[in-house]
Amino acid sequence: MDEVLATTQSSSLAELSGRTGFDEQFLGPSVALPTLNDVETALLPYTHFSVLMRLDKRLAAVTGLGIDGEKLMDLDRSGIKWRLDPRLDADQQTGERVYARNDIDRGHLVRRASAVWGDTREEAAQANEDTFHYTNAAPQAAKFNQGLDLWLGMESYLLEHAADHGRRLVIFTGPIFSDADPVYRGVDIPLRFFKVAAFLQDRTLAATGYVVDQTPQLADLPDVPRPGAVDEAPPLGPFRTFQVPIRDIASLTGLDLAQLVAVDRMPIASTLPTARVASTWRRLHIPEDLDLDFDLND
């Protein structure tokens, strides 16, 4: 494994100096990056986004990104290599060792295409490169990472239908860790991931939440331990995506999402406030299934 570790590159502290990270005022009303209590974390700012690292897992607890749909640019990813972040020790983050010689991808948490925007091409290019830090990656089965058209395209769809404020959107993304997660090369591989989108509807803050599962894909990898049973989730097949109450995401992750729970646009969240976790999850088949609770024809 030394040969694998030797290929892992690192950014320099100078390269990352001056990064301002996720802008809590991006939408106008303040939207804070969720916090995690009783667990050691480290906050890492990048261009347009921040990563709250969960040091015990060596993976992100949550990422926060502001997307300006009016300033998105289409930049190439060729030639950009994955790198460690020098602001953390190597043993506090997950590097190339986990991803070498297997069918596990470095799954972007902050979607590359969503971060690549700016007033200048230089700003967008810097964001492009920043998304290729291992701190912004999570182990995902290759079929999962490469085949989830709905999950990967969700941010684009949400941007197209953002109610107001110039097509701006805030996205929080991260793993949902559980005792059922298999351990592979010393790292927990999350079975599920969440996404919470915040936007303005009639100048008022609104939010929606989503969960996707990779359990079936991991079960097909011969060198990854078979995932344990996940009792609290509904039956999940390949590439199934669900809209879920944000309160369920808060319960499953331990993240403080109270601000967004209060403005959740999923109607069931308000009509059944005490429903058990996962009992009201709604499967999505196409982007038009997203219940944003505003007029999609605007």
Q: What would you report as the Rg, rounded to the nearest angstrom?
A: 18 Å
* End-to-end CA span: 54 Å
Low-confidence stretches: 1-7, 229-237, 294-298
Residue share in β-strands: 25-35%
Strands of the widest sheet, in order across it, are 2-3-4-8-11-12-13-14
Shape descriptor reads: globular
Tell me the structural class. alpha+beta
User: How many helical stretches?
Assistant: 10
Count of DSSP E strands?
14
Helix content, binned percent: 10-25%
Name of the CATH homologous superfamily: Extracellular Endonuclease, subunit A
* Average of pLDDT: 82
**SSE order, as H and E?**
HEHEEEEEHHEHHEEEEEHEHHHE
Q: Could you describe the largest sheet, including whether it forms a barrel? A: 8 strands, antiparallel
Say what the CATH topology is. Answer: Extracellular Endonuclease, Chain A
- The total domain count is 1
CATH architecture: 3-Layer(aba) Sandwich
Determine and state the CATH class: Alpha Beta
